[in-house]
Amino acid sequence: MSARRIAAVAATAVLALTGAVFTAGSGLAADRDPAQGKGKAKAKNVILLIGDGMGETHVDAASIRYYGADGQLAMESLPALGSVQTYAVERNSATPELVTDSASAATAWSSGVKTYNAAIGVDAYGAIVPTLMEQAKTAGYRTGNVSTAEITDATPAAMFAHAALRGCQGPTYTPASCETLGGEPYLPIAQQIARNNVADVILGGGNARFTPEDQTVMESNGYEVLGALGTTVATGAELAAVTGNDRRVIGLFNTGNLTVEVNKAKAFPTAQVQAEPSLPEMTAKAIDLLAHSADARRRGFFLQVEGAMIDKRSHANDAAQTLGEMKAFDDAVAAAYEYAQRDKNTLVIVTADHECAGFNIIGKGSFTNAEAGSPPANQSGTSSTQTPVRASNSALDPARSTGPVNGAGAADAANFAPATFRTLDDPAEVVDGSLDASLWLTYLAGNHTGADVPIFSYGPGSDRFVGEQDNTDLYDEMAAAIKLKVAP
């Protein structure tokens, strides 16, 4: 933990006792001003940023990797700090399920209820529960949903769709995943999104989940469709060209998940990959489109942003891509934070749905991933839909969620030896993958853990998010911060 982070923790303790706060100096440091909290203060806008799979070590490792041991990420500059417990419950029961998935966690903060893993916008017994975004839209707010995953995936979907199981995405699905409490079929999530008008700005991946018919419906409801739904992915240039203060926009920039940042720069410099906007670019554009609309000027806006690939690359135990996705997510946080500091009426919240893979910073040893075979985790060139090959190059690495500790791939040294990275504190000659690099990282497993996750916040009502809280509390506290009356 950096000296500045320690100072921020101390500042949070002051906030908890007095309602006042400061944060130690950085390029994004907050000054004393009315935007820094007070439980009764009303925010006009909310920007909720979710680092999918982001635990405390993900934050610390990315901070050290990019800014050195005494540096900090943009999210660490947000002055109010806390932690969030993330457990789910078993289906048709209130019995705790200690390790959540993204669907149940996203439903918790979107609708304020504990539910079973894989549930989207329904409670533990399958009943539909209204979401914060739906209720904000009904109350006149502008709304937006941004993700580097398919926009039909669990975290974005839980804000503006409902399904018994997260696999109900479309255009193909199993009947069981799209079945209501009464046995009638739900529309697939993609069709719900295309027809419910809940989000005014929709940016992410998953173009193949939609059909030309969905585009016809959305255009009839006033959406500008970038690319062509179901056939042609949108581009960053098309997004940058969107103008107008009251536009409804959907842009889906990949048939599936967006490309991880490391691969954009190295392994897959194709025209389509280079045409994808980054998460910071999508975030900044979404804020711009939402903030300058008539509805937002009159009432406000609610925006959710997800850095999805942190989780997906943690599942794959790929430290390089995990850190690259953390950097991209933090740059999106910076865009939101900078806007909020100018605006003074915007609450920014940064947290996670769960921790993924038991990420750890360890002491130096005598054996690194770079010595174990090809490719080492800190030099991976695999795509976001592939896993690294075994050291023998003979087979894809097996799933790592079945073993008692590391899963079925535990014997594969290429995946479980430490990945090492140089930092700003290292001599210039030190390189990634070497024994001399100061940042050594390992994973415990290939699946989620039950660890609490950090929460950082700034703006009117930010002191509501200080200290230990449950993920369901976020629903009530976000609504209270903007004085939105929501379903209990």
From TrEMBL:
Binding sites annotated in the UniProt record for Zn(2+) 2: 52, 311, 315, 354, 448
**Covalent S-S links between cysteines:** 168-178
Record-annotated residues binding Zn(2+) 1? 353
Identify the InterPro entries for this entry.
Answer: Alkaline_phosphatase, Alkaline_phosphatase_AS, Alkaline_phosphatase_core_sf
Q: Which cofactor does it need?
A: Mg(2+); Zn(2+)
Renumbered to this chain, the Polar residues biased-composition regions fall at: 370-395
Chain spans, region Disordered: 370-407
PROSITE patterns linked: ALKALINE_PHOSPHATASE
Q: Which SUPFAM superfamilies match?
A: Alkaline phosphatase-like
| GO MF term (any one) | alkaline phosphatase activity
Transmembrane region(s): none
Record-linked PANTHER family: ALKALINE PHOSPHATASE
Q: What is this protein called?
A: Alkaline phosphatase
